[in-house]
Structures are given as structure tokens and as C-alpha cells.
Amino acid sequence: MAVLVVAVRQDAERTSVADLADVFVVRELGSETWARLAIDLRVGKVTGAAVTSESRSDAWQLVHAAHRGLLVDSTEEEILSALIYHGWMRIASHEQQVMLEPPAESFPNRSVSGKKFGQLIDSDEPASTLIDPHEIRPDNELFGVFAADRLGGSSALLAMSGVGAASSRMEDRRLELRNPAALGLERVDRDSWSIVTSTVRCAVLGLASSDDAPSPKRFSEFSEPDAVSQLWETRDRDRADFWLIVELTASEADPPVWMPAGQIFEQMSFTGRQTFATTAGAGTLVSPGRRSTLLLPAFCLDPHLGSPRSDPMRATPLRCPLPQGATQDRVWRQRIIARGGQA
Q1: Where does residue 318 rank: exposed (0-12), middle (13-18), buried (19+ CB within 10 A)?
Q2: Among 59, 77, 196, 241, which is disulfide-ready with 5 (CB 3.0 to 4.6 Å)?
Q3: What are φ and ψ of residue 259, in 5° steps?
Q4: Pairing of strands 110-111, 311-319
Q5: Which residues does 338 contact at the CB level (< 8 Å), separation at least 6?
Q6: In the chain, how long is the greatest CA-to-CA distance?
């Protein structure tokens, strides 16, 4: 059985992978373990690590030989593939071991107190704070303008920071909550045509391409449920894995509405299901008293969460800049790197 053996600096504070120790063994291997190991290696709390057999007597020697890297037995092909997929880089081979270095963090940030994080939530300075995912609600003051009862965006920030997998399997761990700058996100609500600032009423559902037509109760916020259900049947299943149905209605003016590529839509509250972003820009002019219904292909931004279940969603004041030649896999990889390698 493969285990992770880690060497920790004696003067380090409690790490995010285990209690302070010289050399210790981690038997629960998974994406959260690799993510926390990557952070500890980057900041120097961990001096070296190795994935090897639990029965191997010289494991501690491998750990010290790793020197700010991770040695993996070459026979652990599944673990190697997973690490490389999530951004770890192969830099050398030593007999039966492969040396990897942790993924670089695309948006370096400084870890601050919860109070300071609240002050930096809307800053261009990347910042993060450690939270207990069981105690943070989307309307928490930590989120400032992005709180659920203000502009929104807090559910997306929780999801994109990694809440979900961590809270379900690592009850005793804290999670690194990141502000939009640390996640590489941009504000869109300063544009008067933004779907967030427009005067239109907006109803949104998030669906997977394989979903059947949602039940009528899912369309309770839509003015013409039958028409929306019929529109869903026209989707091109091969074009996208995920979709957004957006119904816009206006009462008085003829407001133009614009959504850039990467416009983020979040769950109405944190449900443990996925966050979406539009794959391309889209806009429309909404006539007074009439509806404009859009069927938009979308990318999922957090593969660690559950698939949508015809969930009501809402637009956020944030967009995710998409990688060149964006595909679902490339977007996932971008998001994994943006939050320090967590998958």
C-alpha cells in the first residue's frame, strides 16, 4: 500500500497536511492531500516528501533526498498520472523514483486574518484566509460586496476556493478562501450593460447536457415554462457539457444586456454543486413587457463539486478569463492551478 512520507521543518507552525513532526506518514492520499502538500513545499514548511511503500525501511532517506520536492515510486503510475495532470512537474528520475516539483501558483497571494481579508475582498491584491468551511455562510461579512445579500458572488468564491470536497472528507481541516484577485477573476458589474447592473429581471437554470427537461416546479421563476422547456430540447448535446437557460424580462425601458465570455453564474446558496461560466459573449435587447430567453453553453468551474440538478442560479459580478482555445479540460486545469493545485 502506498503512503506519503513527509519531513517537516522543526520550527514550522502546524502545517496544512498534518501536525508538527519531523517525519510522519499520511495514508489518506487524494487531491486535498496533494494540494496542501504543494502549498507546504512552496512556502518551505515541508522540506521533502515521498510516495512509497509503507513497508519500505529507508523511506525517511527518500524524504530527505527529495529536498523541497516529491519523490514517487515509478510503479505508482496512477498517482503519478494524477499529480502530473494537476500541475506537478517531473524534473528528474532517481533509479525507481520520479522527482516532481509542486505546481506554480498562477496568482500568488498572501494569507491574512479574516478581518484583513474582508478589507481586501474587492482589492486588486491577491489575498487568502484560512476558514472552517462548516462555519462560513455566503452572507458572511468576510465577503463584503460579494455577500449573498449584496451583489452576490460568495457561493462562487467558496466553490472556486475548494469548498465541497474539503468539507465533506476533511472535517478537521481548514480551507484557504481566496478573494477574486487570488483566483484570477475580474469584475464585470462596472459596465452599465452588465446583466448584474441592468434593470432586467433575470431567472436562470443550470443544467448538464445529458439532463432531461426539468420538472415544471423548476420553471416556477420563468414566465413561460412550456416555451423554456421546448427551448431546452433544441440544445446541441455535442456542443457543450453544461448549459444555462437565462430568461430576461423588462418592465419599462429597452435595456441592452451583455454577458462577456466567462460570465460567472453561481448557485443561489452554497449547495455543493457546480459553478458555471459562459463559453462566449452573449447579449440581447429586452423589450418592455416581453421576455428574452437565452440558451447558453457553459463551462463548469469546479469539477470537485456535484453536477447541477436543474438548479436555480444567478449571475455574479465576476468573470473568469478563459484560456486560449478554451475547452472544458483546459478551463478545469486553469482553475486547479489558480487555487494552488486543488482538484
Answers
A1: buried
A2: 59
A3: -125, 120
A4: unpaired
A5: 106, 107, 160, 182, 183, 184
A6: 76
Beta-strand ranges (E) seen in the chain are: 2-8, 23-26, 46-53, 70-73, 89-94, 97-101, 110-111, 127-131, 175-178, 186-187, 201-208, 242-249, 256-259, 263-267, 276-278, 282-285, 291-300, 311-319
Instruction: Give the mean pLDDT of the chain.
Output: 81
3-class SS shares of the chain: helix, strand, coil, % to 5: 25, 30, 45
Q: What is the pLDDT of residues 117-127, one digit of tens each?
A: 999 999 988 89
Q: So what's the pLDDT on residue 210?
A: 86
What confidence tens digit (pLDDT) does each residue in 299-321 have? 999 988 888 878 889 999 999 99
Residue 197: burial class (beta carbons within 10 Å; 0-12, 13-18, 19+): middle
Q: Give the C-alpha separation, 304 to 324, whole Å.
A: 23
Does the pLDDT value for residue 19 go beyond 70? no
User: Of 343, 272, 273, 261, which is closest to residue 308 (Cα–Cα)?
Assistant: 273
Cell of 22: 519531523
- Calculate the alpha carbon distances from 154 to 31, 143, 157 in Å: 23, 6, 5
pTM, rounded to two decimals? 0.68
